[in-house]
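task queued by scheduler; priority normal; single chain, no ligands, no partner chains; default sampling; output format set to structure tokens
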Amino acid sequence: MTDRGFLFEIPEQASGEQRAIAEIAGLVDALRVSVERLAEAHVALVERVDALDDDTGGAPGRHCWRDLDRDAARELWAWLIAWTQWLVERYGLAQDLGSCWPAHPALVEELTALAVSWHYAYSRKSDPDAPVRWHEALHRARHRWQGWDTTRCRHGQHTTRSADTVWSPPWPQDAERAVTDDVNARQRAAPAQTGGTT
């Protein structure tokens, strides 16, 4: 019998019990095929959700400064400056982090790592204690910054920092100048490859 989607034939002389068993077997086989299709659809849906829910809060897909071309660096700079300004205001870090941080590669790298980690810590994919671990990483970073002369920018001489230190003008322009210098020093992106030949 080939109706009802059965993949095999039932002999005409089969008993009622044999026919019932064959029909159940056919239904089980059809169910198996449906479950396999459902599993494939589930995997595809998970991949789509992962792609949509990148959990980087609008962060560019690449965060490795060493490997960025001009366009990717410009995009990452814009994202990092906006996030760092939020960080400084939210946590009152102007006394810990100098406004000239974009001119100091080590701080750029550390802030990039903190920003990426922060976005992941607050994503739906993270563990419940990820935000606590991120705050511990921020605490350790703040202690490191206090030991770096680059955050004081006084050529190695200690400058007393007051608790109400703020980034005064012209910090945005200084940041833009550091970004422009960095972007201009990078290679241009390679032209996109076309599929056909002319």
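post-processing summary
- The chain is about 55% helix and 0% strand.
- The mean pLDDT is 79.
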